[in-house]
Amino acid sequence: SSGINAEYGGDCENIACLPGHTGSVSQLSFTKDGTHLVSASTDKTMGLWDLEAGVRVRRFKGHQSFVNSCNVSRSDTPTMICSGSDDGTVRLWDSRRRHCVKTLTNPNKYQVTAVTFNEKADNIISGGIDNSVKMWDLKHGEVQIEMKGHIDTVTCLSLSPDGNFVLSNSMDNTVRMWDVRPFAPANRCLKAFVGAQHNFEKNLIKCCWSPQGTKIVGGSSDRMVYVWDTSSRKLLYKLPGHSGSVNDVDCHPTQPILMTASSDKSLFLGELK
Questions:
Q1: Distance between CA atoms of 75 and 72, rounded to whole angstroms?
Q2: Among 127, 201, 221, 203, which Cα is nearest to 168's?
Q3: What SS3 class is residue 100?
Q4: Could you give the 3-state DSSP secondary structure of residue 48?
Q5: DSSP state, residue 230
Q6: What Rg do the C-alpha atoms of the chain give, in angstroms?
Q7: Does 95 have pLDDT greater than 80?
């Protein structure tokens, strides 16, 4: 769909529809204060939406191909946005400006499929079809650290609540946990979580942290939602219910509530005990 809808199996009321994109919406990211939403789309643009007014207040143009991923900085002022695209670039945006602030070009020109800021928003972490996770130094505009371990496309990156670690989901059927602190050991891959699947659909399946960082949640092409214990890597839950690939997952910021989105065109809300 080219709009943003919220429908919960008929049990919850859809309070808004935000039309404007001319291609599918590939990722969404809320601003820290929850008043605005950033969207990435295959129409080569991103949007900044005022949720109270229900309108798009900014349209970001600059990418030359599909925008696969977007992320909003955790800092309040100013709100910075990063994006990753099939054009092989990672871009930095200021929410107050229309044009791109900085363009970071992948040395190998491979498509970028996932991006996230670090805690201080002085680094952007990206992943793509070259299987590696890169940490970009925004001051110098170059790759500061390249983390290797995945053997297939990285589909999602998620920063931990404390900002010390990043999760990466990959088409190699693993979710990996990386140490992104400045003076971490050379081998930054701390753990791999297995069970969740990717298939021929090649969806950019997401993963996330629970609010305290004690659990890790991943979508899966086998229609299940996987929940692991962060410290032990033990699979705690394998949650059924969807009739299609589970492409996106997110946890409530304060309550033990999980939301999942699927190719079956439904969103589910569930409780994590």
A1: 9
A2: 127
A3: strand
A4: strand
A5: T
A6: 17
A7: yes
Residue 145, CA atoms < 13 Å, CB-side half-sphere: 19
What per-residue string of b and e applies to 215-240 under the rule 16 or more CB within 10 Å gives b?
bbbbbbbbbbbbbbebeeeeeebebe
How many Å apart are CA 160 and CA 164, to the nearest integer?
A: 6
Distance CA 89, CA 83 (A): 8
Q: What per-residue confidence (pLDDT) applies to 46? A: 97
Q: Both tokens of residue 87?
A: 């054009």
Nearest Cα to Cα of residue 250 among 229, 232, 272: 272
Strand, helix or coil for residue 152: coil
User: Mean pLDDT over residues 34-51, rounded?
Assistant: 96
CA distance 27 to 21: 12
Give me the numbers of helices (H) and strands (E) for the chain, helices first please.
Answer: 0, 23
Spatial contact of 68 and 98, defined as CB atoms under 8 Å apart:
no
Predicted confidence (pLDDT) at residue 178 exceeds the cutoff of 70: yes
Bridge partners of 149?
A: none
What is 202-255 written as a DSSP string? Answer: -----EEE-TTSSEEEE--TTS-EEEEETTT--EEEEE---SS-EEEEEE-SSS
Per-residue pLDDT at 8 exceeds 60:
no
Q: Is the pLDDT of residue 3 over 70?
A: no
Q: What is the pLDDT of residue 111?
A: 97
| Spatial contact of 89 and 63, defined as CB atoms under 8 Å apart | yes
Residue 76 predicted with pLDDT over 90: no
Mean pLDDT of the chain: 93
Mind listing the pLDDT tens digit for each residue in 218-270?
999 999 999 999 999 999 999 999 999 999 999 999 889 999 999 999 999 98
DSSP-based three-state secondary structure for 210: coil
Write the single-letter amino acid at 217: V
* CA 207 and chain centroid, separation: 8
What phi, psi does 249 have (nearest 5°)? -140, 150
